# Entry
Amino acid sequence: MIALESPALWLFAFGSGFLGIALYWARIAVQQGTGARNFIDPVGTLPSFTAIIVISTSGFVPFFSIGLADGVAQNGFAYASMSLGCVLIPLAGVFLFKRIWALAVHLNTPSQASFLDEVFASKSLVVLSAVIAVLFAVAFGGRVMTAFALLYHDLTGGVFDPVYSLFLIASIVALIAVIGGIRAVMYSGAVYGAMGFLALIGLIGFTLFLAGGFERLADRIVDLQMNDQGTAPFFNLSGIVQFTLGSGFAPPDGSPWSTAMVLSATLAFMGLSASPVLYLFAVSSKSNRVFGPGLTWVSAGAVGAAIMAFAMIVGGFGLISNMPDITGEVMERVSELSPWFMAALYFGLFSLVFALISGSFLAAAQLGVVDIYRRYYHRDLSDKLAVASIRILVAILVLISVLMSITAPFLSAELASLCLPLAAQLLPAMVAACYRISIAHRSIAVGALIGVFCVFVTEPFGIRALDFVGLELPWGPAPWTIHSVGWGLFFNTGAVLVISVITRYHDQGERWNALTRFLESTFPAQPFSTPVISTAWSVALAWFFLAIGPGIAIGNSLFVRTVGREQENMLGLPSIVVWIMIAWASGVAMIWFFADRMQLATAHGSEVRKGQSAALAESGMRTDRMAVTVWIILGIAGTTATLAWIFG
# Structure
């Protein structure tokens, strides 16, 4: 007989409630979203507040995937600088979402792939967007679900097998997307986002309780810093850059967390705002009026504050307690004292990742069926059959994700680490689409492919893949303590600029010029004076330099003073901690300035009318195109197998 104090019982009870809420909103979504067209084309159809809540809470997911608090417990507060990615996610959204929404409504492009095809007429960008969407669903989604399945197994004391737990979690994720589509994901995601935010605050509060209060926690952190010289790398960044050849070669001095690593790694978080799934969330909003205040105060403000507290308090407690798996340890302590509260926290934390993971599977399935198969191979595919195909494909992708996580967890983790760096390579394309800057639009695809290649050869998966076919690279992951996204964006933007200068961006094409006129009429230039504009960009560059760039090294010792022969922290916390907190607060102010005062994410007076569906291929089943595609795939597979057999 299971006692009321059993964690398994409470997890089952709260899990049933979690599923019940999701099914309720799925039912509401089905009732409101009658018809196949609503399932396929959600552009401008959902309440704006749901979009901003889901977008904001999705910002938690990358930090859970990298184990932010556990990373601080293992690597010290230099790793906590990664939490400044909570500023970069909404910052990218401020620059992009308002204009992307208007273009998506004007072009009627429900997916990022169709959007890129309409704007740039590039099949390479379509394929890249599709690959990123699948990786977000299968690899990234699988990694996050696996982490929660293992935690579920631990919290039940081994009552539930991890494989069973993973199938259970994946079933809930798939069920909502299959039944109600994007409407159900957004409705339930908005409710879950509020619940999850409260749960994270509860986890942070319980950690403070275990630590004996904030003052006691701060005192113990300072004691560790001052009394143990071996922990110096935990409280300092290791210089500007370290010219090592990456992991597996000569290790960097102190730690790999140089300012170059911080800058390049945090830029990866901007890839979330450029990903196919957040594109789907953003364009589903009925209006773009909510992006400015929502991204400023909800995403950067409330969510950013919770992420900072999660890193500093939970991670700091793990550091002083020598508990590298601090998140799991705190949850187990909660389970010992209050099993029902532990169950509430568990499903609250799972609520934060639910919408992004479920939406990733839906975005990948929709893109594959509607924007690739029907667009290029089978124009006559009916809406009803397309919806059925999307639902089947969601189930297939979830099953593949689960099986890959079980049979090849190492491969799944390496593929998941590619998601944000690859998505970040779409940033130049999205910026060019939104602002029509003076570049050759045909250079965008070339730059993106070069960036993808640079990411590939500086990530563990790419290095292992090349080694498999007999090509051994003379460097490892993150050479020169620069993350793969840094290498990718540097050569990506460099290629775009060089090609644009060489071609002098002639022959932009009538389609490009028409979209430029649309943006100019919809978003007329604001009468800002030149000094105001110059000041705005100067502030932005200064923030990047001081908050996540080389200037962050100042934070190692800025708030430290010498008293006699001893050094002490001026504000009662390690200097780097105070610097990171100031960087976050100033980052929120910067986002508000760009969103509101520079009007990059405020409402506009021009009405945007929904356009016609994107141009489709010729009618009928294009078996010729299908055959060519199959032969290309077989050719790539055959070439890879041959190289592996000869050189591997």
The CA atoms of residues 432 and 441 lie 8 Å apart. The radius of gyration is 25 Å. The beta strands are 560-563, 566-569.
